[in-house]
Structure formats: C-alpha cells, structure tokens
RNA sequence: GGGAUCGUAGCUCAACUGGACAGAGCGACGGUUUCCUAAACCGUAGGUUCCGGGUUCGAUUCCCGGCGGUCCCA
C-alpha cells in the first residue's frame, strides 16, 4: 500500500464516498514539517462545507485510528495541511525493498507497449552544429527513459534527405570539386560544394540555377547516375552523423529520411481528397483548419510538389502500419509547433488513433542570433566536443586521468548543460555554460559518483548482492538522503509524462547535493558498527540511483576521477 | 494584423502542475583540508516573481487587460 493509498483510506473513513483515489501524499516542502505532507483536506473541506482545519483534523483522527500505518506522527498545520512523519522501521523496510528492486524500482508500465521517437533529424550533406545538440540529447534521454519504463522504443532519425538542395549539390559535386575531393568525399566537401554551387545559382543569368533544377528533376525521375550520387551523399552523411552519435552515446534503430515516404505521398493526397478534407484553392490542394484556429495546411503545391505536411502524414501512416505504436513522439524546435498541430489534427481526422506528441524545445542561439552560416556564428558539433574534451583533459591529467576519461567528463558536461534546462527554454550558447565543470553540472554529478565508488571500494563491503541489505536511518542528514532516494522511481515517471529530462536532471542534482552534504558531515568508514554498515548501505543505494539516473540521461559514470 | 511562447536574485535557471518563509548554480564576500577524492562542504549579501485587475482559505502557477522579448502564419 502506498502512502497515498493509506491516507486515501483515512479520507474514505472520514468522508465516505469522497474521491479518495485522488488523494496525493507528497514529500514535505521543508523537513521541519515532517517527512511527507498531504494538502487535499483543504480541497475537500469546501466540498463538504467544513472549516479546512476541522476537515484535516477529522482525517488525522481517522488516520490515527487505522491499524499499522507507516506514520509515527500526524499533525494538522497551517490552514489544514497534514504533516506526516514516518517511522524508522517503515523507512528501513522501504529502503530494503527499494534496494532489492530491479533497475532502482522504475515501474515497468510500458511493458507490451511500443513507442516511436523521432529525434535529431539533421539535414544530409551538412555538418552537425551546436544547434543539433538539443533534439539529439533531449530525444536520446526521452528514448532511454521510455526504454527503462519497459516500452518497446523505435528510435528513428528523420533525416532531411530530399529536396531542392540535391539539385544544387549534384551540380556542385560535378563542377566545383577537384577529382581528389570527389574521390575522398566527406561531408565537409559536400558542404563546400553546396555553398559554391548555391552562390552560382544566384547569378543573374540563371543558367546555373536552371542546370541545378534539371539535375533535381533527373534525380526525382530516377536517373541512375543522379540517384547513385544522391545515395552516396546520404551514406557519407550518415557515416559522419554516426561518428558524432557514437561520441554522444546515441543510437538509432532506423534512419528513415523524408525520401523514404516519397512514393506514399500521392496516395495520402488521394485519401485526403476522397475524405473531403483536401480541397483545391488557387491551384493548390489545401486542408482548411480555420475551425480550430490552425489556419490552412497545403498538402500539394500548385506546381504539383508536396510539402512537409504530406510527408509527415505519410510517415504517420507508415509507422502505424508497421509498428502499431501506442504513441509517436517528435522532438523538434518550437518553430514547428503550428505545423505539428496542423498535421496532428489532419491525422486524427483521417482516423489515426495513435497518440501523437510534439515535444518542442527552444531554439539554440549564439550571441543572441539564430545559428546560421550567414550570421557566421556556426560552431560545429565536432569542434564543441573537441573543446569539451580539451578542457576536461587539462584538469583530468593532473589527477592521472586519460583521454577516455576526459571524453566522458567533457561530453557529460555538454549533455548535462542542455538536459538540466526545461526543454521549453531557449538557450543562448556560451562556451563557459556548455562546458561548466563545477556547480550544477555533469561533472559535479560524476564526481559525486566517483567518490561514492571509491568509498565503497575501500570499505570492503560485499557488493555481490549475496548479503542481506539492512538499513538503519538515524541522523537528519541520513534521513533526508534516504527519503530523497525513495523518490527516484516517481521522478522517472514524472520526467517521462512531461517529456522533460530536466525533471530527472534536477532530481539527480538535488540528490547529489544531499549526498555531498551528508558525506561532509557524516564519517562512514571511520564510524563504529552498526553505524558504519548502515551508512555504507545508504551510500551504495545513492550510487545505484545516481548511476541509473545518469544512464537515463545518457551521461557516463566513470568510477574513478 | 492573427496565433504560439516566454518574462522569477547582477547573470543562467528551478519551483513535483494551486500550497507553508519563492529555491539552486555562477559571480561577490567570509570560513572549512594532520580526517572516507576540495570538480567538494558551510555561512553572508542579493526578490514588488514585468505592470494592473480578477478567481481562491492560499497565485510564480489559473482567467482578463496592458507592456516587453522571441518565433510562426498571412
């Protein structure tokens, strides 16, 4: 029985027929109020026409009358809060149960359910830059969190691998690169020839531009040479992306770019017309969503071309048919909110039952401006990761650390800097913030982990799991840490429901702070038994929570720093 | 012009979705290493939560009206 259920039973006893299932027990906002609190008597008081404090008192009395509750103290405070203190025995039993649970007690509520998560999605033939961190890192964390909850996750990278840029690229490849560059084609070369070719396409006479367009048409019509080139561009791009993903610990199940859905788009449009959703307007086919204040979505342009709405509708149909997912989660920047609302609405009208979720994040800027080549403020992801490694290596080498450790710490810093913010907030990139190694940072958490590992190694504790784990909580510092550790599974669920890895990051930081404080004030190895063992068990549990939690964020946990 | 979104300490951000005295990090100032890793810990200073109304026992959170930033659509 959970605490909420226990208190809910007291509510039921005091006020039969109430909504006792709605009762929530939450951690106390301040230790001086106790361990947990329940604020629901205040809400209920109005319904039953009682004074809030009287209603709370009635629940408190009912709670006192219940047999075998976990509470050693129940108080009514303030306007009608129920302040709850749990007994030492209950806490010890909870900790023991928590310690023996698989995967730190993360509930397997996704068992048997499948989720598609669509994230990162860079454009082919371009190098990844700092603007790509957010979708990649946030998406990866959501991916890991959902997997931990037992969901069958399909991580898909919806590459930008189709469109007019390929006409420009093909033309540029043939005429702007040296033989050597063509033989050793890299994404950097592709980017270079794109820039050169695009510049020529802007020339007055329009000759180059027309040539690019012809190459595009040939590609679209399946010309063998152009298709082969396009395939090569994509292959090289994915190779380069995977080099970045390897550094970031990101792994996709599929790389299905926009091109994958090409052949399905005419069918989608046909069905839209048949359903009476798409109508003609000024030569284009549109879906009018004015009734929902979503404006108008074009599904086929007047020149016959399709756009993102059509492609995304085809993509949903394809994913539903192939995977039958319970939901599809899209992690993209918030500029695309209208687009997602539009195509979600259309998909629903076409009978799509799958829950479609857009997780929008604030666009990353640099020096106050949107990141773009034109602004000259583009920092390549590779550069950022190199600098991250370089900075941490400077510190790590003095402590006997190697390059591998520098990578773990540097990349951890980069990822944490992003994940610790609510996705909704826009981030203006700064080297010092992205690479922070102190305070609320990835390395702070990694350091706390390394310290606890060191402590456990020196203790000679049997970590095989064979020995029974017994918990005894006595001091306030121990109790605060213990109560915090028990919140881990619920926090993972909250992060998943809100699609906010920041909820978990924030929790881990607070937990590490409590641990550091405890560590400072409470000797472990030098304590006498039974305190020594009791504290060691708490430390071990903290280590497990931290390792598991950081793992969900995609941050590595070296045992020695 | 319509719509979305944000506005919290000098700076960067939290606040478990309506709860108690709004909390952290950085920066500033001061303290803690014969003691388990000082990337740490402890303390001090710093707030009209953009402004004005409203709902509520209670509002950073919800509603209305402004102001300001960013973005999308036309």
Number of strands: 14
User: C-alpha Rg, in Å?
Assistant: 28 Å
Task: Give the proportion of residues in helices.
Answer: 40-55%
Global outline: globular
At the first level of CATH, the class of one domain is Alpha Beta
Strand content: 5-15%
From the N-terminal CA to the C-terminal CA, the straight-line distance is 41 Å
Identify the strand order in the major beta sheet: 1-2-4-3
Tell me what the CATH architecture of one domain is.
2-Layer Sandwich
Helix tally? Answer: 21
How is the CATH topology of one domain named?
A: Gyrase A, domain 2
Low-pLDDT segments = none
Secondary-structure-based class equals alpha/beta
- CATH superfamily annotation of one domain: Arginyl tRNA synthetase N-terminal domain
**Mean model confidence by pLDDT:** 94
């Amino acid at each position: 029985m959970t605490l909420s259920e226990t208190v809910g039973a007291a509510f039921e006893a005091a006020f039969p027929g109430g909504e006792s299932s709605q009762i929530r027990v939450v951690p106390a906002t301040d230790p001086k109020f106790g361990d947990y609190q329940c604020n629901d008597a205040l809400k209920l008081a109005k319904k039953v026409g009682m004074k809030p404090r009287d209603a709370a008192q009635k629940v408190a009395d009912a709670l006192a009358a219940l047999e075998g509750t976990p509470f050693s103290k129940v108080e009514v405070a303030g306007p009608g809060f129920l302040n709850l203190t749990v007994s030492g025995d209950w806490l010890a039993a909870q900790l023991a149960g928590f310690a023996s649970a698989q995967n730190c007690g993360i509930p397997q509520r996704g068992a048997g359910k499948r989720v598609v998560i669509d994230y990162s999605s860079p454009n082919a033939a371009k190098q990844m830059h700092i603007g790509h961190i957010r979708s990649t890192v946030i998406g990866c964390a959501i991916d890991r969190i959902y997997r931990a909850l037992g969901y069958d996750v399909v991580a898909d990278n919806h590459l930008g691998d189709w469109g007019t840029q390929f006409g420009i690229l093909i033309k540029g490849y043939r005429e702007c690169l040296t033989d050597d560059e063509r033989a050793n084609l890299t994404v950097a070369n592709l980017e270079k020839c794109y820039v050169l070719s695009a510049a020529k396409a802007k020339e007055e006479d329009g000759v180059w531009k027309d040539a690019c367009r012809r190459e595009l048409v040939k590609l679209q019509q399946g010309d063998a040479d152009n298709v082969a080139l396009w395939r090569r561009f994509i292959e090289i791009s994915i190779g380069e992306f995977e080099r970045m993903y390897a550094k970031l610990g990101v792994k996709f199940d599929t790389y299905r770019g926009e091109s994958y859905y090409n052949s399905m788009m005419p069918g989608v449009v046909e069905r839209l017309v048949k359903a009476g959703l798409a109508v003609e307007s000024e030569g284009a086919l549109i879906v009018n969503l004015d009734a929902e204040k979503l404006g108008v979505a074009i599904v086929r342009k007047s020149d016959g071309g399709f756009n993102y709405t059509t492609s995304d509708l085809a993509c949903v149909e394809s994913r539903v048919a192939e995977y039958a997912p319970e939901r599809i989660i899209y992690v993209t920047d918030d500029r695309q909110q209208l687009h997602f609302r539009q195509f979600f609405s259309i998909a629903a009208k076409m009978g799509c039952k799958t829950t479609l979720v857009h997780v929008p994040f604030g666009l990353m800027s640099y020096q106050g401006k949107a990141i773009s080549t034109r602004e000259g403020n583009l920092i390549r992801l590779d550069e950022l990761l190199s600098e991250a490694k370089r900075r941490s290596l400077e510190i790590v080498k003095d402590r006997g650390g190697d390059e591998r450790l520098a990578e773990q710490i540097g990349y951890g810093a980069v990822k944490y800097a992003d994940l610790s913010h609510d996705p909704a907030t826009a981030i203006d990139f700064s080297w010092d913030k992205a690479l922070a190694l102190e305070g609320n940072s990835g390395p702070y958490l990694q350091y706390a982990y390394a310290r606890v590992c060191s402590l456990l190694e020196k203790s000679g504790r049997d970590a095989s799991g064979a020995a029974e784990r017994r918990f005894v909580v006595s001091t306030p510092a121990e109790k605060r840490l213990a109560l915090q550790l028990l919140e881990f599974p619920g926090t993972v669920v909250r992060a998943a429901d809100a699609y906010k890895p920041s909820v978990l990051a924030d929790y881990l930081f607070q937990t590490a702070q409590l641990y550091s404080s405890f560590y400072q004030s409470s000797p472990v190895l030098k304590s006498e038994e039974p305190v020594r063992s009791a504290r060691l068990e708490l430390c071990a549990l903290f280590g497990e929570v931290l390792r598991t939690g950081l793992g969900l964020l995609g941050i590595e946990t070296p045992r020695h720093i």
